[in-house]
Specification:
2 helices; rod-shaped; 77 residues; mainly alpha; single chain
Length: 77
């Protein structure tokens, strides 16, 4: 069960970090749009930010799976 806890911790932290970075990138895209930068510039930055947010959410979802497995093993004991 120790390996499940390590995986849970790694995935949870990584997911939160990637989501946070994604929100930062998305914010940069919004700033670029507000400053009147070319559409391709802010569109690509915003799309990358959204992709990072959803990637982080997926990684965090896997952490939830590991946490559920840990709780299930505790319940079975």
């Amino acid at each position: 069960m120790d390996t499940l806890k390590r995986k849970w911790l790694k995935y949870a932290v990584l997911g939160i970090l990637v989501m946070g970075f994604g929100f930062s990138v998305l914010g940069e895209g919004m700033i670029a749009k507000a400053l009147g930068k070319p559409i391709l510039n802010w569109f690509l930055i915003g799309t990358a930010g959204l992709s990072l947010i959803f990637a982080g959410l997926s990684v965090f979802g896997q952490a939830v799976v590991y946490k559920t497995m840990i709780d299930q093993k505790k319940k079975d004991l």
